[in-house]
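Field reference: sequence -> structure
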Amino acid sequence: IDARAHMLGRLASVVAKELLNGQKVVIVRSEAILKSGSLYRNKTKFQAYLHYRRNANPTKGGAFHYRSPARMFFKAVRGMLKHKTTRGVEALGRLKVFEGIPYPYDHKKRMVIPDALKALRLKYFRKFCVLGDIAKLAGWKRQETVARLEDRRKQKSQKFYELK
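Structure field:
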């Protein structure tokens, strides 16, 4: 599934249901997933979330707050599954999430989920932001690298298309 221009929660719910039905799902371009609400609002919500720690012994391990958009999406899907049961663990094992489009998947046909597209689900005057920008503000350091690799991939696919 190409996650560009999809709404976070709507895409996660469709993916969670497919995983429970036994389908293997690969999500690419997770940095381009959209979230409703302004960037400022989502940034402050994420900063408040970063303060959550474990209660028993806060100095050890505890609540892990992922900064990568792929892991943020993974955690959104995990929240929609019973991930502590055998069925839930197996379902999460069938999910792969990537930033950008890595090698084996750049040659495969990508799908969209119409029920989760921003154009069909969000009113035109509503504010929204990109998950990659939230992640960058939270401390994700790979945004420029992913953008550079995506540009290179697009150039290669453009050459291939022209030769075809």
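Note: The mean pLDDT is 92.
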